[in-house]
Amino acid sequence: MPVLNRIAALAPEMTAWRRHLHAHPELSFDCHETAAFVAARLREFGVDELHEGIAKTGIVAIIKGRAEGPVIGLRADMDALPIEELTGAEYASKTPGKMHACGHDGHTTMLLGAAKYLCETRNFAGSVALLFQPAEEDGGGGGVMVKEGVMERFDVTQIYGIHNAPNIPFGHFHTTPGPFMAAVDTAWVHVTGKGGHGAMPHDCIDPIPAMAGMIGALQTIVSRNLFALDELVVSVTQIHSGSATNIIPEEGWFCATIRSFTPKVRELAERRFHEIVNGHASAYGVSARITYERGYPPTVNDAQKVALAGEVAAEVSGEAAVEANAGREMGAEDFSYMLEARPGAYLFLGQGPSAGLHHPAYDFNDELAPVGATFFARLVERAQPLG
Known about the structure:
Number of strands: 16
Distance between the termini: 21 Å
Largest sheet: 8 strands, mixed
Structural class: alpha/beta
Mean pLDDT: 97
Low-confidence stretches: none
Shape: elongated
Number of helices: 12
Radius of gyration: 24 Å
Order of helices and strands: HHHEEEHEHHEEEEEHHEEEHEEHEHEH
């Protein structure tokens, strides 16, 4: 079954919504205009309940079906990124330094399209909870919504989300049961030595060789501490020190991102990170201060919900376009908090050739929105059928 006819007819309207959102990006929890736009559309559609101000600018809307039954949750993220847009599109960001470089404008549009269809048809039992969340990129808005009790307050029993995927064939769905995306932790290391003249290193305690030793040794966590069939990434992404060619600096700092899937590996990485940094600090005679922050947990799909989502995806795009055992990926996603709270599934939806996510030339493919909206709508009808 291809895109639903009613949703196909909504395509021009959905494109207009998406391009409006694209032109007016907002960051983190400050999605005030975005939330107002979404709420206005939901009121027009005739949702049964509209709850605003969740996680500051998040929204939960309820659509009731034609019979009693449980509540299924559908989620879309709304926030943009602090990137200067380079698409050159006529609907490009009107806010310098901000753009929808990850397609959350498209995700919001998909869910709005599904909402309009579901309000018109109501061909399902129970209710649908539409969760429009802020701060996926920065702040963990999904976790904040969970902490504020959305699952309990609205009796959500299962939850689903979609993310567009550049350079996966258009309309193809990828997902997998179990861990799908990684946990993400972040570490900052501040190293202090004794500065001085670059010509007199014997009078100094140079933090730069100490940091170089730490950074090199951190790579042995993966190569020498980890079981070869486990998965872990330790990437040092910034190094800062020094101010002139003839000065040995007093201090410097670096930071790293650490990605894993299991509590055991996560704990191993954190323990060895501290041991390596502190050991090198002692060896080089410097002091080191570590700030190690646990971030988003792994995104873990429920096997039964993945099976259902895969069947629905096959209805929409054909069996050949669905990879329901696509394997894991080391990116992170705060939908993970919702999957910790309720069983569900997260899927990637291919948008064809494109600049990559978080790239200043990225743009969401508007032809994809009806595909995603159809998936959401059919998922509700399949998960909670009438009769």
